[in-house]
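Tutorial handout. Part one gives the primary structure; part two gives the three-dimensional structure as tokens.
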Amino acid sequence: MTGATVSAKARLCDLLASRAYKEGSFALSSGRRSDFYVDAKQVTLDPAGINLVGEVLFDLLRPYSIDAIGGLTLGADPIAIAVASFSERQGHPIPAFIVRKEAKGHGLQKWIEGCLPDGARVAVVDDVLTSGGSALKAVDRVRDAGCEVVVVVGLLDREEGARDAIERAGHVFESVFTISELRERYRAARAQGVAPLVSR
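Part two.
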């Protein structure tokens, strides 16, 4: 990781801590409650966040020599697009794709939209991973399309079983941040009596 990317990762952590991480009592999609919530789209759809996500994930994925990036809509979409955009500016374009939750009901009736070359080496991404179920659904669709999933990447791992589930299914898993890292950044800033600083 270059010095510039280390700096970008620190700024991205600041953004997530200040804009996406919340403490309280929240109902999750699973039906259980949690004492924290991470609304990553407050960062992945933010102009500064998009650039940082693209840079940090492009660098993380460089060793995997991927041909395409995408995942299950909606969490994966801005991440895949950010990496595709950044990769073009680096002279190493990586196309993005979107995995639907249901097959399109008309036209070509596709599960996957966008650019997924036949036989591609693919990174499947998601924003916040809890059990890993959404990522694994995307993995199944990508494999059904005849492509190879070389890595599954989460912007944030809630450390509640996603890594184990994905690795148990035989896939390499990488996360940019863990919830432990994000909580530490958030609470350190709170202890100083300020919101986490967002470096520009």
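Part three, for discussion. The chain has a mean pLDDT of 92. Strands lie at 21-27, 33-38, 68-72, 96-99, 112-114, 121-129, 148-157, 173-178.
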